[in-house]
Amino acid sequence: MEAQRYVVMGAGEVGYHLARVLANEGNNVTVIERDPGRQLRVSEELDVLLVAGDGGHYSVLEEAGVGDCDLFIAVSSNDNANLVASLLAKQLGARRSVVRVSSAEGIFEQRHIYEEHFRADLVLSTQMLTTSRILNQIRGHNTMAVETYAGGRVQLRKLHLEAESLLTRRALKDVELPRHSLVVALFRGGDLIIPSGEDRPQPGDDALILGKAHVISQFEGMVSDRPEDLGKIVIAGGGQTGRTVARALEHLKAKVTMIERDRSRAEELAARFPRFEVLHGDATDLALLQAERVGDARTFVALLGNDEADVLACLLAQELGVGQVIAMVQRTETSALWRRLGLKSVFSPRSLANEWIHQYIKNGFSANIVSLSHGAAQVVERRLFAASPVAGATLAEISPPRGLIVGTVVRGTKVFVPSGGDRLEVGDLVILFVKEEEMPTVQLLFPDPSSS
Amino acid sequence: MDILEFTRPDLVFCPLPATDAQSLLRAFAERLHGAGLVMDSEDLLRRLVDRENLGSTGIGDAVAVPHCKVDGLAKPILSLGLVAKPGIEFRAVDGIPVRLFFTVISPDQAPAEHLKVLAAVSHWVKSGPVDRMLGCRRPESLLAVLAETTQAQDVPVANR
Lengths: 452, 160
Description:
The structure holds two protein chains of two kinds. By secondary structure, chain A is an alpha/beta fold. Chain A has four domains: 5-129, NAD(P)-binding Rossmann-like Domain (Rossmann fold, 3-Layer(aba) Sandwich), CATH 3.40.50; 146-223, Alpha-Beta Plaits; 228-328, NAD(P)-binding Rossmann-like Domain (Rossmann fold); 366-451, Regulator of K+ conductance, C-terminal domain (Alpha-Beta Plaits, 2-Layer Sandwich). Helix content of chain A is 32%, strand content 26%. In chain A, a hairpin with a 2-residue loop joins strand 20 and strand 21 (414-416). Chain A starts with a strand and ends in a 7-residue tail after the last helix. By secondary structure, chain B is of the alpha/beta class. Chain B has one domain (3-153): Mannitol-specific EII, Chain A. Chain A binds chain B through residues 172-173, 182-184, 195-199, 385-390, 392-393, 395-402, 404-406, 419-420, 437, 439-441, 443-445, 447-449, 451-452, and chain B through 47, 50-51, 53-57, 59-60, 65, 67-69, 91, 93, 111-112, 114-116, 118-119, 121-123, 125-126, 155-160.
């Protein structure tokens, strides 16, 4: 990729490292930072242009030259300031913008609405990235295996079809699939198939299933004799991230224990998650961990909101015999150190955001594109406009060719997996699963100015 | 679907005189109007331009598929045009200037037909002898290449 102009708002953990990476790649990078301490660090250590000031101010954005930048990256610690800055930057002429928000609830769950109103090309939440990362780790999948779309309401999951099952007995069009679910891809040997109704999954295939979270679990029960048992999972810390992880585990086969220090919060958790065991206590207290037989757990996740406590709790759990311990730390620079202490799964939400934005740039500014099987197929999001050929047509009328699946429709706050009779409307956001050779068809039928 | 059935000899233009995207689309609009297919060439031009503004229909390998729906047509129409070298800057996906244009216009009331023709054209381009078409000098030869190579390429229905 030739050199691009980037403006990064906020030189915190995400912004600083991103600016460094982008500058090292030979790009033209401007950093906006209002904190004098951080300003000093940027001007001394990075080969970037520094603009001192508040990115929420029009004049500051103007001074930073956002008007002709290829990408505006709003990653300050203030969600609202990031959103407003994105809007102003677009007004000034920035070609694209990425906005980081911290929370998974609220803004991120409705991120498509925010993307529209604040003209952001991509809103990403560090918390959402953290949660998916933890879940993937718990389930022993690689990052590909569980992807979430539309703010987590739609999931993509890989299922191994072991022996004969409901799914392998007949062609897909004749299988009664759970409502709001689809088989979007089959991996067979080294091949990737984006199936049509005529295709018939075979034992040994890996199937990629798309659907709402609870439906997918139902699906799992249908296709395999034994739904994946995640064993005992201990979540230390019932804060926002802990709750989000717990919510995702509700529909899965797992025995979950949560440990929370704050009594009233522990009571809230017990009421919210009746199926889970909730302990009131300190997760760094060895006696408590022993008494509650935490050592039997298959996975231990530390989300205490304090790096030292997280690491200590994980070390204790590991000592007690837990096979997999996962720690989330805030400070990126120390995670290498923790790894040396023997904690393999230590990561920071900020470095995840960092990786994500960098990947977005590497993908040619494509939002939410996941390459399936080394680029043989893609997951693509497209918005529908009045001049879109498919606007106003039902899925049956579109009759997508083999190799192209319309997997999900996001319409305002509604999210659904469409079937033949569903009509696509102007303003819809659709998530497509596309085999490489059908990309021209997507280009013709689903044009989207933000993706070209 | 055989895309040949949507075109006819008087809708194949070679060489088509145009120097940029605007004059190219205008040439198609005027000729389709001249052939008595659309009432209003300005309206057609506007619709084709609107669609291009949403994202280029240049699908690579020097081919583009401009398209839109219009009022008052009986069935989808495919019009072919070949532009002389070096071609037209059309913001194609691979950045290559476009020489071969498959313009599709369809009745407003027939979204399904429109989409099927577009999918069929995109499939033809993928597997058809685009290079041979680029070498044509007369409309008859363009049409002949198309006729030789279009078979019933049925587009199977996806997963439902």
